[in-house]
Amino acid sequence: MAEFMTFFVAAVVIVTGGLGVIAARNPVHSALFLIQTLIGVAVLFVIQEAHFLAAVQVVVYAGAIVILFLFVIMLLGVDKAEDLGVEPIAGQKPLAAVIGAALAAGGIITVVAAVDGATGSVSAPGIGEDALDNGYTDIERIGRVLFTDYLLAFQITAALLTIAVVGAVVLTRTVKADDLLDDLEPASMDLAPLAPAGANDEDHHEPVDEPARGEVV
Amino acid sequence: MPAELELTTSYYLVLSALMFAIGAAGLLIRRNPLVMFMCVELMLNAVNISFVAFGADLNDVGGQLAVFFVLVVAAVEVVVGLAIVVAINRRRRDATADDVALLRG
Do A18 and B23 contact (CB within 8 A), yes or no? Predict the structure, then answer.
């Protein structure tokens, strides 16, 4: 009973947080509602004995990802209220609401109709079928399976993280080193148009004087 | 109201479906790319709830491992996506998702 009440409270927190994310006019408020939802999900993980994931959820999601969102919001200065009444595409919001309601109804009906519960077989039998009550903590179980059965996926994850770091640096870099030598100007956040006026018009066949440079590589 | 309420997997799955729908609707409604990314995070978390619920139901730690990998991929997606948002905002202020429908500056 106490477990059910915990679930109910966490579910209310999650759903109100989710609705707040999509309803808040200020992106900062959306980020704060997102933290509310993530904490609720962490509570659900605790109920299901996934303590490691609950801790990671709070540390990585609420502590790192949402803070990254807030950094970018503050950096770009877009933390002002958005006029939600503006609708460039006619009927977008009612249609989106209908699609969302249909998605929710479909998912809920599917779950309620499927009275047999989960199907399928256990994919990680390395620890044994009694994995949840054989004395191992969930961190030990995750560690054992992660570094045996899922080792390749784990290493690919490392490569993915490296690629993401390099990609983020490349995407946000502004001025190349040789451009700095040419211009002898400090790196500026708001660059002048890199191509001469008219180069982006329809007749851009004739080459411009200086070699074309990528805008933001 | 029954005397003892048992917390079955279906409760988690219904909540997961609801949360996923909220995220999907928000992704379609909002035009601010930052808020759209937050809605993607909502959808990923909805799926994480399902993974953990199924893992607990099947007595399988693989569900928790799937959540672990989803978490890493979500972090990567946010890093690259926010870098793109920063790069776009350097070119034009207050860009919404509609303004960058063409893949050229």
Answer: yes
- Out of 3.40.640.10, 3.40.50.2000, 1.10.287.3510, 1.25.40.10, which CATH number does the structure's domain B9-103 have? 1.10.287.3510
Cα separation, B93 vs B35, in Å, equals 16
Question: Is any Cβ of chain B less than 8 angstroms from the Cβ of A59?
Answer: no
CB contact under 8 A, B34 and A69: yes
B42 touches B5 (CB < 8 A): no
Of A7, A45, A157, which has the smallest distance from its Cβ to B7's Cβ?
Answer: A7
Q: A169: nearest CA in chain B?
A: B83
Please, where are the H alpha helices in chain A?
2-23, 27-47, 51-56, 66-76, 92-113, 138-146, 151-172, 177-183
Give pTM, 2 decimals.
0.77
**Domains of chain B: which residue ranges?**
9-103
Q: What is the pLDDT of residues B53-89, one digit of tens each?
A: 988 888 888 899 999 999 999 999 999 999 988 888 8
CA torsion, ordered B82, B88, B94, B96, to nearest 10 deg: -80
Question: Within 10 A of B17 (CB to CB), how many other CB atoms are there?
Answer: 23
Q: For residue A191, which phi and psi values (nearest 5 degrees)?
A: -75, 150
CA dihedral of residues A164, A35, B31, A89 (deg, nearest 10): 130
